[in-house]
Amino acid sequence: MSTARETIGIGVVGHAFMGAVHSHAWRNVHRFFETPLIPRLAVLGGRDEGRAKAAAAKFGWADVETDWRALITRDDVDLVDICTPGDSHAEIAIAALEAGKHVLCEKPLANTLAEAEAMAEAAAKARERGVRSMVAFNYRRVPALAHARQLVAGGALGEIRHVRSVYLQDWLSDPQSPMTWRLRKEKAGSGALGDLGAHIVDAAQFVTGERITGVSALTNTFVPERPDGDGGRGQVTVDDTALFFGRLSGGAVAGFEVTRYALGRKNAMRLEVNGSKASLAFDFESMNELSWYDGTGPSTEAGFRRILVTEPEHPYVGVWWPPGHLLGYEHTFTNEVADLLTAIGEGTDPEPSFEDGLGVQRVLDAVERSAAEEARWTAVAAQIR
Ligand code: SOE
Fold first, then answer.
1. Whose CA is nearest to atom 5 of ligand 1?
2. Cα separations (Å) of 375 from 199, 201, 215, 362?
3. Where are the domains of the chain?
4. What does the DSSP 8-state code read for residue 197?
5. H or E element in which residue 218 lies
6. What residue range is the signal peptide (predicted)?
7. DSSP for residue 181
């Protein structure tokens, strides 16, 4: 491996689940990918100094800051990675971009459409100064989904007719499960819709290369209050589930369902695309596989077959393990930051951009407006670029 690669100072804000998985990615990425830049784990941000220090020691960060404002202006930080709840994304991202720092921001891009618009505008201005930004839709970096996109783009499916995607979890099924920030609108923006729906909207648009142009939606909150952990009860102010269908710009129809109440489904992020020549299907719980049906051959030999997406020719796989030696959730983040470092090093725009994140936000916003009027058909405004 080359020793001449430059380093880039990283500052991560937040050290819970996403902070941990991003830390893992930053630590390892250059050991597998020949990225033009090597991350320097400069500083980890967290409001509680003791907890931030413990996390920094565990994940290998050189220093901590308890105030994100101090973190984003440090000279040893070139890139700010935002792993906080959605209520702080816009403020941190815009300030970091204005301070000349590249930004990676967890999904969904923001809690509101107005915030997402402001972020996309700040990203466009920063781009003119060579400052890059990316929203962290990590499922784009699952090799099987990246491969699915290539198959669609290469015409292997023919004309796309149906897209169906669900994202099912079950961690809220027990009404006694306690409150968390994810159930408070002021913190999380929305519930299953923003947390899980953002992923499948992005995945559907990414794999098909098309845009959702309108939706009709229903949402529901099954358990309106939960134990707050202090002996009291807290109000759940977000959706527990969202169900919506829509049209794609290429003429296909699409159906989506997200929930945190599908008992037995732990992280079932699924996508199926049916075209005029073939169908493909993906399930994150078997993330190294794609199901593939070729509709062009003799019907007597037709049937779904399993493609094990672990060949070195498949996207991202070549730097990892030999065929059949499976990848996991954490690899998607390492693949993601590899793409980001490559774009920054080469002076190109990483994807998905904040504009892409805004596009997803527009769909989520249309879903909420439609659901507020019991599934009224609601158009999704076109992208700004
Ligand atoms: C929780 O529902 C969660 O961690 C999401 O926030 C992530 O984006 C998803 O990858 C797994 O589930």
1. 195
2. 21, 18, 8, 16
3. 6-138, 141-373
4. I
5. strand 212-220
6. none
7. G
- Per DSSP, 233 falls in state E
Is the minimum distance from the CB of 259 to ligand 1 under 6 angstroms? no
Question: What is the Å distance from ligand 1's center to 64 Cα?
Answer: 25
- For domain 141-373, the CATH architecture is 2-Layer Sandwich (3.30)
CB 10 within 8 A of CB 41: yes
Q: Which value does ipTM take for this structure? A: 0.94
Q: Are 206 and 198 in contact (CB under 8 A)?
A: no
In degrees rounded to 5, what are phi and psi of residue 229?
Answer: 90, -15
The reply to whether ligand 1 has any atom less than 6 angstroms from the CB of 111 is no
Q: What's the CATH superfamily of 6-138?
A: NAD(P)-binding Rossmann-like Domain (3.40.50.720)
Residue type, 324: G
Give Cα separations from 271 to 115, 144, 204, 242 (angstroms).
28, 11, 7, 16
Which amino acid residue places its CA nearest to atom 9 of ligand 1? 196
Q: Looking at residues 72-93, what average pLDDT do you find?
A: 98
Distances (CA, A) of 165 to 83, 99, 280: 25, 38, 12
Predicted confidence (pLDDT) at residue 2 exceeds the cutoff of 80:
no
Q: Kindly state the DSSP code that residue 17 receives in the 8-state scheme.
A: H
Atom of ligand 1 nearest to the CA of 138: 10
Report strand pairing: 212-220 vs 133-136: unpaired
Ligand 1: does its nearest atom lie under 6 Å from the Cβ of 210? Answer: no
Query: CA 360 to CA 357: how far, in whole Å?
Result: 5
Distances (CA, A) of 42 to 45, 65, 358: 10, 10, 29
Whether the Cβ atoms of residue 248 and residue 160 lie closer than 8 Å to each other: yes
6-138 and 141-373 share one CATH topology?
A: no
